[in-house]
Amino acid sequence: MSLWAIWNEPNVPGWLAPQFNANGTPASPRIYRGLFEAGYAGLTAAGLKSPKVLFGETAPFGTDAVDAGRQGIEREVAPLAFLRGALCLSSAYRKSSSCGMLPIYGYAHHPYTYPAVPGPYYRPANRDDVPIGVLSRLSRAIALASRAHAIPAHVPIYLTEYGVQTKPNPLGVSLSAQAEDAAISERLAWENPDVAAFSQYLLRDESSSGRFTGYRTGLETPSGAPKPSYYGFALPLTVTRATTKGASGFLLWGLVRPALGATDVRVLIKSRGSKRYRTLRVVRTDADGYWSLRSTVRGVAWRVNWRSPSGEVYTGPAIRAF
């Protein structure tokens, strides 16, 4: 299946300008609507029948309006304000009669989360912002847009760009925390039934130049050395302390990404005062490689180990409980 996407982060002034009109209202949503319509028409004119085109590719943060004047030159439009504007929807998700339905196949979004603390669970005050911790906001907006007949029904979400920054980027976390936050982020995406795809960006960090520290969301350093996330991407693992009433212990969730079907994965645990890991349990994944486990055994770190059918051994990084 071939997917097409129109533009990149059109709610960011570095990619599309102007973002705001002189009166302070968003300008980029309507500009983008025209780009999407032109791109879709071009694909059909090239002979593609009903091309599968992703709409959006939006960045996670912004504002809904700015003061009149030049203030809006460097400001971003909040993603859900952008969605409503591009789909001719009011703040109550009522569609203008002057706009028809757009034939979008999926909504593409880049749910980066800032600042580094509290990481993936960050919930910004502006309800039109959508980092990874509040993907339900985007799901609700898409459902309301469909109900208004601005887009087709059951439009899935494609997270086409995501990563966790590491130091020396000012917004970065430690290398070990990157592996933990990346796995938590992927679990949050997995828990949302509307998410159809989750993409890692970058593979290798950008290099520094002067004051520019570069984008440091990669699985490798600028020199190509693997970070803990390099191993964590193959075997993402989260360990969550049970907090519900009547529950105790830990909830473990993971994925064996290289697996091509159901497989066995070894879950390891390190107890306080110990220098070594021991086997906690061997668990069976589902057909897509996902697995979960409830455990009452306390530890200070967990990791997973998997042997492929060809004999290659994969070992994930150490993960703490949160």
Helix fraction by DSSP (H/I, runs of at least 4): 10-25%
Structural domain count: 2
Mean pLDDT, nearest integer? 95
**Biggest beta sheet attributes:** 5 strands, parallel
Number of strands: 12
The tally of helices reads: 5
What integer value in Å does the Rg equal? 22 Å
Shape: globular
* Helix/sheet category: alpha/beta
Strand order of the largest sheet: 1-2-3-4-5
In sequence order, what are the helices and strands, one letter per element? EHEHEHEHEHEEEEEEE
Portion in strands: 15-25%
Q: Uncertain spans, ≥5 residues at pLDDT below 50?
A: none
Distance between the termini: 38 Å
Q: Would you mind describing this structure in some detail?
A:
- This protein has 322 residues and is α/β, with parallel strands linked by helices.
- It folds into 2 domains: 4-234, no CATH class; 235-322, Immunoglobulin-like, CATH 2.60.40.
- It is 20% helix and 19% strand.
- It contains 5 helices and 12 strands.
- The chain has helices spanning 28-45, 79-86, 135-147, 175-191, 228-234; strands at 4-5, 53-58, 106-109, 157-159, 195-198, 237-241, 250-255, 264-270, 278-284, 290-295, 301-307, 313-315.
- The strands form 3 sheets. A 5-stranded parallel β-sheet has the order 1-2-3-4-5, with helices on one face. A 4-stranded antiparallel β-sheet has the order 9-8-11-12, with helices on one face. It has a 3-stranded antiparallel β-sheet with strand order 6-7-10.
